[in-house]
Amino acid sequence: MLFVTISYAQKATGGDRDKHGCIGSAGYTYSIIKKDCIQTFAQKIKLKEVDPKRSFSTIAAVIFSDDNKKAEIFLSDYKESQILIRTGKKGNYVWKKGDLKLTDKDGYQLKKGKKLIYSL
Hints:
By secondary structure, the protein is mainly beta. The chain has one helix and ten strands; from the N terminus they run αββββββββββ.
């Protein structure tokens, strides 16, 4: 019984490190682009959910690579972050992966298929 109690106490106080060493209970998740643990809610670019289906809305955090060719998106509906690759010409960039598409015209907007799901 003592072992179970100690194990639980460690988990509750930050003993829940993932494979990258990030502590989920402290709000940290791993960023592929930054190669470090980050708190998504503390990022500069946070998009708001456009049409929440629940009584609360969520955010989508966005991190760009140094060369701006990749955008890492953190969405609550996905187990891991999504890396979108930039296409298009300067002034008309679009970052894509599968049916996800991020644009920066008129503020950042994230679409899934043709549906706008997050915006700034």
